[in-house]
């Protein structure tokens, strides 16, 4: 079962393409995006890793660290990286976990606890549940979980949009409506009383219904 939003992201030690890391120490005071892949040298994941490499400056701008994961060993990740650069125009510029003991996949509810054996004997279909995105805050709490099928590539523009919303709503007592993008109007959070809202928003708000209080995005 995938970990629910609001729980502490499990800490772990793992080998990555950039050396051994302890996950919570690696996150530090940043935000983090942990995204997983069922197998190296798979077509959809190849496009995703290249797309994310090109978008890394956007994540850097938002203070979000990137970490990939596959159950295949780190040396295979390095060879796969060459293919990704050749076919996608950019190689991964972030660490990739070699989860050969399935420890992280199990901790994050992506594989059953009973799984064991050589990861190289497993197919992508065997690991099809290792297709998650976790966004983790500086408090090490899970803020979002997305689970994708193997046949559908991830939309990283949507993930950036969600991060913008998460970071805004962590700082201000607001929520973002459907299809919201950076700079658009937001909704005053339900936890804010009208008396509090008058102090925070002395200019007032639009109120199509008493439970929908719309204001410009806070700076």
Topology:
Elements: E1 13-16, E2 19-22, H1 23-27, E3 31-37, H2 43-61, E4 64-70, H3 74-88, E5 96-98, H4 103-107, E6 132-136, E7 142-147, H5 156-171, E8 174-175, E9 186-188, H6 194-200, E10 206-209, E11 212-215
Parallel strand pairs: 3-4, 4-5
Antiparallel strand pairs: 1-2, 3-6, 6-7, 8-9, 9-11, 10-11
Kindly describe this structure:
- The chain is built from six helices and eleven strands.
- By secondary structure, it is an alpha+beta fold.
- The protein folds into two domains: 7-153, Glutaredoxin (3-Layer(aba) Sandwich), CATH 3.40.30.10; 172-215, Antioxidant, Horf6, Chain A, domain 2 (2-Layer Sandwich).
- The strands form three sheets. A five-stranded mixed beta sheet has the order 5-4-3-6-7. The chain has a four-stranded antiparallel beta sheet with strand order 8-9-11-10, covered by helices on one side. The chain has a two-stranded antiparallel ribbon with strand order 1-2.
- The mean pLDDT is 96.
Kindly list the characteristics that best describe this protein:
Glutaredoxin; 4-stranded antiparallel β-sheet; 219 residues; alpha+beta; 5-stranded mixed β-sheet; Antioxidant, Horf6, Chain A, domain 2
Short description:
With 219 residues, the protein is an alpha+beta fold.
Q: How far is it from the N-terminal to the C-terminal residue, by CA?
A: 38 Å
**What can be said about the biggest beta sheet?**
5 strands, mixed
Strand content: 15-25%
Q: What structural category arises from helix and sheet content?
A: alpha+beta
Q: Helical stretch count?
A: 6
CATH topology of the largest domain: Glutaredoxin
Succession of helices and strands = EEHEHEHEHEEHEEHEE
**CATH 4th-level superfamily of the largest domain:** Glutaredoxin
CATH architecture of the largest domain: 3-Layer(aba) Sandwich
Oligomeric category: single chain
Rg over CA atoms: 20 Å
Unreliably modeled segments: none
State the CATH class of the largest domain.
Alpha Beta
Q: For the residues shown, what is the average pLDDT?
A: 96
Shape: elongated
Q: Reading side by side through the largest sheet, how are the strands ordered?
A: 5-4-3-6-7
Helical fraction: 25-40%
Number of domains: 2
Number of strands: 11
Organism: Bradyrhizobium shewense
Pfam families: 1-cysPrx_C (PF10417), AhpC-TSA (PF00578)
Protein name: 1-Cys peroxiredoxin
GO cellular component, one term: cytosol
């Amino acid at each position: 079962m995938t970990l629910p939003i609001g729980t502490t992201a499990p800490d772990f030690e793992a080998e990555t393409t950039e050396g051994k890391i302890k996950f919570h120490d690696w996150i530090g005071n940043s935000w983090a995006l942990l995204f997983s892949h069922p197998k190296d040298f798979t077509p959809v994941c190849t496009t995703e890793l290249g797309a994310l490499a090109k978008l890394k400056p956007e994540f850097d701008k938002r203070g979000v660290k990137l970490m990939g994961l596959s159950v295949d060993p780190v040396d295979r990740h390095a060879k796969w990286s060459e293919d990704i650069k050749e076919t996608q125009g950019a190689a991964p510029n972030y660490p990739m976990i070699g989860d050969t003991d399935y420890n992280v996949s199990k901790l994050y509810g992506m594989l059953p606890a009973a799984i064991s054996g050589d990861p190289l004997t497993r197919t992508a279909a065997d690991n099809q549940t290792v297709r998650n995105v976790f966004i983790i805050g500086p408090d090490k709490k899970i803020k979002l979980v997305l689970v994708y099928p193997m046949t559908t590539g991830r939309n990283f523009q949507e993930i950036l949009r969600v991060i913008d919303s998460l970071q805004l709503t962590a700082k201000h007592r607001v929520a973002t409506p459907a299809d919201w993008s950076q700079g658009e109007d937001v909704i005053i959070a339900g936890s804010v009383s009208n008396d509090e809202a008058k102090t925070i928003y002395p200019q007032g708000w639009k109120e199509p219904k008493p439970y929908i209080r719309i204001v410009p995005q806070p700076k």
